[in-house]
């Protein structure tokens, strides 16, 4: 039956193919119509043309090269701690006339012929429209209404002083470096705006990486940068309208229409989108119709701004501002649009900027002198004025200087402005190149300058940490990944604290292993990560401090936090094997093998309460674990059994010369066995074992862990606070 079905199917297939061939053969003999005139199709089918010279093939090849070069430079710059924008700008310089065009002019001309740049330009503009839309969502205009007086002062200084400096500099540069036909007003205003703007995305990333998001410095930096960039984009829209209209008087019409357009976006479109955001705030119900509506608002706003004459990018920015403040809604939109913009389209913009940048034009000492003056003015008047304003507003010296460094970074926002100036026929190629180099320099200086400030003020930090340690007797750090593990670790920490002494400082640390998250995403992740541990802590009557960070260097961040916090004990959850080179395994390996802090790694097997504990001893050094066992015993009356592993060194448990003798006398259940077997392990719900003994047992019988309950592996470096000894003395007196 089965064979006959295959035969019928094969026969039908052959017959179908034969019928198609017969139709083609018969139809080929039909007379062609003489009435239609078909125009020749341009492209690869023309005589003498080849496939790789077609416009589409050339565009695809250019995109492949762009993405490849940008990826390479992103990896290289990341190794030096520089933000991604530096790698992208340098990639543009490499393929432009500054290097590729200088060394291999024929290859450069073939890869980026002038007639193909129009397609790249359109792609880059689409990428910028998406980017400005996302940035508009990130910048919350409500900060303009809620700024503290100090922040208002800092942001105003950060706008006025650089603007004045830029206009003053433009007075000396206009004659030689403005394009023919450009007015002084346009040149001065665009130069001033290029010195005033702040790279808001780069600043956010730095603030998040350094854990400053909820500090006075971080709040002031983010709010001031938002206010500065909002003001800059509003002024830029007016300047673009003026240049396109041909002067201040002629720009009155576009400015009025632009004002009406802004009012409509904020009073009509924004409330409408808020209603949409309140309904479609979860992925489950967020559908293609909502995506279509958002794209419609974005494109229509960009089109309106372009037609009015205030530039499509301002329209995209305003469309982002009109989006709801709902964090979940913003996160969903960002996930839809960000990757295609940042990873695929924006690299095209950076390459185009590099193709316009020709360092060989700066071929005299005068040129480099002008560049040095430009860089000096850009740094001195932006960094210096903001640092001074921050100090006058009450920040300490370190924070004031850090604020100046943060707001002095320019990045992508600067490139957008100077490209607009170049496209409007205001900036010459020479001044454009100088401004690009200034952007690279000020952005690259940010991270090293902050590191220098860290070293200069390290002693102050150390003193603060020492004082913090004096004020509390027992400092515990809980580091966890999955939120459920945080709840488990706080239960464990509670059982390690003596009930009579609640002078305990517990800090919970959660790290998102990524740089590429937005502030509103960070708020959502932080809320989700700490919700279980906060609930459990409240039930237990514990107060905890929470610390949230996002970085791709999880191991360095945890080790840095442990070192700076001067913790007595660090508890870490192990969701994976604790000695691997992958993800958390590699982090735990570095924590356990280095440092001088006591580390406890919980291998969780459903831990809730340490009611019955098995303490493993393999050497005299393991007697230090009696401190932990005693805490469990005293805190929740846990039954502790001590097992001396017979394969290990001889351990004199009741040695009166031992510094732990006063603790050993409180444990009477002492047994001896080679390696704990399944029957013995079944009577306990927690095993205490030192790191060295753990390694030794695993090397002899790695399968024993399958029979174990939850395990607390401890790397002990120093004694815990003296409250244990005080409790022992009290019991002895009784």
Could you give a quick summary of the protein structure above?
By secondary structure, this protein is of the alpha/beta class.
Describe this protein's structure.
There is one protein chain. By secondary structure, the chain is an alpha/beta fold. The chain folds into three domains: 63-106 and 133-455, Up-down Bundle (Na+/H+ antiporter like fold), CATH 1.20.1530; 463-590, HUPs (Rossmann fold), CATH 3.40.50.620; 605-734, 3-Layer(aba) Sandwich (Rossmann fold), CATH 3.40.50. It is 63% helix and 8% strand. The protein has helices spanning 2-27, 55-79, 84-95, 100-103, 105-111, 117-138, 143-146, 149-177, 184-196, 200-209, 216-245, 252-279, 288-308, 312-321, 327-356, 365-392, 397-407, 411-423, 429-444, 446-456, 458-471, 483-495, 519-540, 554-565, 583-593, 626-636, 661-664, 678-681, 691-700, 723-733, and strands at residues 474-480, 504-512, 544-550, 569-573, 598-603, 612-617, 639-645, 670-673, 686-690, 710-715. The protein has a ten-stranded mixed sheet with strand order 3-2-1-4-5-10-9-6-7-8, with helices on both faces. Helix 6 runs antiparallel to helix 15 (327-356), helix 8 (149-177) packs parallel to helix 11 and helix 10 runs antiparallel to helix 11 (216-245).
**Strand order in the sheet with the most strands:** 3-2-1-4-5-10-9-6-7-8
Q: In what range is the share of β-strand residues?
A: 5-15%
Shape, per Cα inertia axes:
globular
User: How does the major sheet shape up?
Assistant: 10 strands, mixed
CATH architecture of the largest domain: Up-down Bundle
Determine and state the CATH class of the largest domain. Answer: Mainly Alpha
The helix tally amounts to 30
User: Care to count the β-strands?
Assistant: 10
Low-pLDDT parts are 43-48, 462-472, 577-584, 722-734
Please give the radius of gyration in angstroms. Answer: 33 Å
Number of domains in the coordinates?
A: 3
What structural class should be given to the helix and strand makeup?
A: alpha/beta
Q: What average pLDDT do the residues reach?
A: 82
- What CATH calls the topology of the largest domain is Na+/H+ antiporter like fold
Distance between the termini: 92 Å
């Amino acid at each position: 039956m089965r064979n006959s079905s295959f035969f019928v199917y094969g026969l039908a297939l052959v017959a179908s193919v034969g019928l198609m061939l017969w139709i083609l053969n018969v139809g080929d003999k039909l007379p062609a119509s003489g009435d239609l005139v078909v125009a020749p199709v341009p492209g690869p089918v023309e005589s003498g043309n080849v496939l790789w010279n077609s416009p589409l093939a050339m565009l695809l090849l250019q995109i492949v090269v762009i993405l490849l070069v940008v990826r390479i430079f992103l990896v290289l710059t990341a190794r030096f701690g520089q933000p991604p924008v530096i790698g992208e700008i340098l990639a543009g310089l490499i393929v432009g006339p500054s290097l590729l065009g200088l060394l291999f002019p024929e290859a450069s001309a073939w890869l980026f012929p002038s007639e193909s740049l129009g397609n790249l330009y359109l792609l880059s503009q689409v990428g910028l429209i998406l980017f400005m839309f996302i940035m508009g969502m990130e910048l919350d205009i409500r900060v303009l209404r809620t700024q503290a007086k100090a922040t208002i002062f800092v942001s105003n200084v950060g706008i006025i002083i650089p603007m004045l400096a830029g206009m003053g500099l433009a007075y000396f540069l206009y004659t030689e470096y403005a394009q023919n036909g450009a007015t002084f007003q346009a040149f001065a205003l665009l130069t001033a705006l290029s010195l005033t703007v702040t790279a808001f995305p780069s600043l956010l990333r730095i603030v998040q990486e350094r854990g400053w998001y909820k500090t006075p410095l971080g709040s002031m930096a983010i709010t001031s940068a938002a206010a500065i960039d909002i003001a800059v984009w509003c002024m830029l829209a007016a300047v673009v309208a003026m240049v396109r209209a041909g002067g201040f008087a002629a720009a009155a019409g576009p400015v009025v229409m632009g004002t009406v357009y802004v009012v409509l976006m904020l009073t009509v479109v924004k409330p409408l989108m808020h209603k949409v955001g309140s309904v479609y705030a979860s992925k489950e119900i967020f559908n293609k119709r909502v995506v279509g509506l958002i794209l419609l608002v974005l494109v229509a706003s960009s089109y309106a701004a372009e037609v009015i004459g205030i530039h499509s990018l301002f329209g995209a920015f305003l469309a982002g501002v009109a989006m709801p403040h709902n964090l979940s809604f913003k996160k969903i939109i960002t996930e839809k649009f960000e990757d295609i913009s940042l990873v695929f389209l924006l690299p095209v913009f950076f390459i185009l900027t590099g193709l316009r940048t020709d360092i060989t034009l700066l071929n005299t000492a005068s040129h480099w002198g002008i560049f040095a003056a430009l860089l000096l003015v850009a740094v001195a008047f932006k960094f210096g004025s903001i640092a001074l304003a921050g100090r006058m507003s009450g920040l300490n010296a370190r924070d004031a200087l850090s604020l100046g460094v943060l707001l002095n970074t320019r990045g992508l926002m600067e490139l957008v402005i100077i490209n607009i100036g170049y496209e409007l026929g205001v900036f010459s190629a020479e001044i454009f190149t100088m401004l690009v180099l200034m952007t690279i320099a000020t952005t690259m200086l940010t991270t090293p300058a902050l590191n220098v400030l860290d070293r200069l003020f390290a002693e102050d930090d150390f003193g603060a940490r020492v004082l913090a340690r004096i004020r509390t007797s027992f400092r515990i750090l809980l580091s966890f990944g999955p939120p459920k593990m945080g709840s488990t670790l706080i239960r464990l920490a509670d059982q390690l604290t003596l009930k009579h002494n609640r002078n305990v400082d517990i800090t919970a640390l959660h790290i998102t292993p990524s740089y590429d998250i937005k502030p509103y995403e960070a708020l959502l992740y932080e809320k989700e990560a700490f919700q279980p541990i906060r609930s459990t802590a409240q039930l237990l009557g514990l107060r905890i401090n929470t610390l949230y960070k996002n970085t791709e260097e999880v191991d360095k961040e945890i080790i840095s936090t442990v070192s700076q916090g001067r913790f007595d004990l660090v508890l870490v959850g192990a969701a994976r094997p604790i000695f691997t080179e992958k993800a958390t395994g590699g982090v735990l390996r570095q924590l356990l093998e280095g440092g001088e802090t006591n580390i406890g790694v919980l291998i969780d097997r459903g831990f809730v309460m340490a009611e019955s504990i098995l303490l493993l001893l393999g050497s005299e050094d393991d007697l230090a674990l009696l401190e932990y066992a005693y805490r469990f015993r005293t805190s929740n009356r846990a039954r502790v059994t001590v097992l001396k592993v017979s394969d290990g060194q001889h351990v004199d448990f009741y040695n009166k010369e031992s510094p732990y003798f006063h603790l050993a006398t409180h444990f009477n259940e002492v047994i001896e066995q080679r390696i704990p077997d399944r029957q013995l392990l079944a009577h306990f719900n927690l095993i205490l074992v030192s790191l060295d003994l753990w390694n030794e047992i695993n090397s002899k019988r790695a399968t024993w862990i399958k029979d174990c309950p939850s395990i607390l592996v401890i790397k002990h470096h120093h004694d815990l606070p003296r409250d244990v000894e005080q409790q022992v003395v009290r019991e002895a007196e009784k």
